[in-house]
Design brief:
The chain is α/β, with parallel strands linked by helices and 358 residues long. The chain has 15 helices and 11 strands. The strands form 4 sheets. It has a 5-stranded parallel beta sheet with strand order 2-1-3-7-9, sandwiched between helices. Strand 5 and strand 6 form a beta hairpin.
């Protein structure tokens, strides 16, 4: 099967082996593993291809994927996925890269989009002489599914959102242009490798999107509030809130008064950490910035200032300090109950401006 695919592309078996031998030598791979390399590449040719497009972004999402350790990025590229076009990791450039892109467009591929898309004039974010927006529209109409990785691609937020180019996310672009291809959003800045790989492999395996929430995020990764599994949850329950960064005694206190958005952020960051489960924001002493939520960064800034308004299930938008007064007239779940207890006991009252508790 793989040999037929190569022949269809005008590549002989001899040329294919010579190319892999040269590549293996350049990577410093021992000759003993050469047969395994050949088999891995041949197997990858038979997998559904992936086209990975880059728009207005910092490439941090790709960097996050490349940093995966279990599995390694070599296993991802050679064993798990068939990434036919990815401007960061592909060796090809120029017309050769464009040919690879056009060939993949004619197959049953999955489209991954990293970065937001300018909705204004077609002179912004040009790729190979074409507007990036045009490439996304072209590929999304032919793709089996579209996976938007990172907050920029999900809703046009992040740093590109500050530019006057009308940055939008993939789902909004497709909706505006009446394209019905299913979209899976994987926000965070950046998403974890497990999130990206898990979603891609799920779709390739089941040929269907996983269960999603109202923001088109997979529930398996974005189904629970960060606060519910926060390692500082006990400090929250005890009413210990960090007020002075320089006080060693407060080192592990709850970061709510310092701008933590964990009470309204749905993500599995507290359960699955970055860098092969080495660390994540709160464990490193930084409040959650809410980067997995729509509207990040604009709706969650200033990042280190106490957030006054929380949207609680069954209640809507309320002030954290007055939660205890309204909690009795509606049913709240998760963080609502705990914020209510804290506000009612006065543990949150005016702590952020230095006044005494009431």
């Amino acid at each position: 099967m793989a040999e037929n695919l190569l022949a269809a592309r005008g590549v002989s078996r001899r040329s294919f082996l010579k190319m892999l031998a040269a590549t293996s030598a350049a990577l410093g791979l021992p000759s003993a593993v050469f047969p395994k390399t050949v088999q891995a590449v041949e197997d990858a040719l038979e997998k559904p291809p992936i086209i990975w497009l880059h728009g207005m972004e910092c490439t941090g999402c790709s960097e996050s994927l490349l940093a995966t350790l279990n599995p390694s990025i070599a296993e991802v590229v050679l064993d798990m996925l068939s990434i036919r076009y990815h401007e960061t990791i592909m060796a090809a450039s120029g017309h050769v890269a464009e040919e690879a892109y056009q060939e993949a467009l004619n197959e049953n591929f999955v489209l991954v989009v990293e970065g937001s898309i300018p909705s204004k004039e077609d002179r912004y974010c040009m790729v190979g002489g074409r507007p990036f927006r045009e490439m996304v529209l072209e590929a999304s109409q032919k793709a089996a599914a579209v996976i938007a990785v990172g907050s920029c691609a999900c809703d046009g937020a992040g740093i590109p959102g500050a530019c006057d180019v009308g940055a939008v996310g993939v789902r909004e672009l497709l909706l505006t242009n009446n394209i019905s291809t299913p979209v899976i959003n994987l926000p965070c800045c950046p998403p974890k490798p497990q999130t990206m790989l898990g979603t891609i492999v799920y779709y390739l395996t089941y040929k269907d999107v996983p269960p999603l929430d109202e923001q088109a995020r997979p529930l398996v990764f974005y189904g629970n509030l960060l606060h519910d599994n926060c390692p500082r949850r006990g400090q929250f329950e005890a009413g210990n809130f960090l007020e002075d960064w320089n006080d060693p005694a407060q080192k592990d206190y709850c970061l709510l008064l310092k701008g933590c958005k964990g009470p309204k952020t749905y993500t599995d960051c507290a359960q699955v950490w970055y860098n092969d489960n080495t660390n994540f924001c709160i464990n490193a002493g930084s409040p959650c910035s809410g980067c997995s939520e729509a509207g990040f960064f604009a709706n969650f800034s200033p990042l280190y200032q106490k957030q006054e308004i929380f949207k609680l299930p069954g209640i809507g938008n309320i002030n954290a300090d007055t939660t205890g007064k309204v909690i009795g007239i509606a049913t709240a779940a998760g963080i609502g109950v705990h914020l209510a207890a804290s506000a009612a006991s006065g543990r949150l009252k005016n702590k952020d401006n230095g006044q005494k508790e009431e």
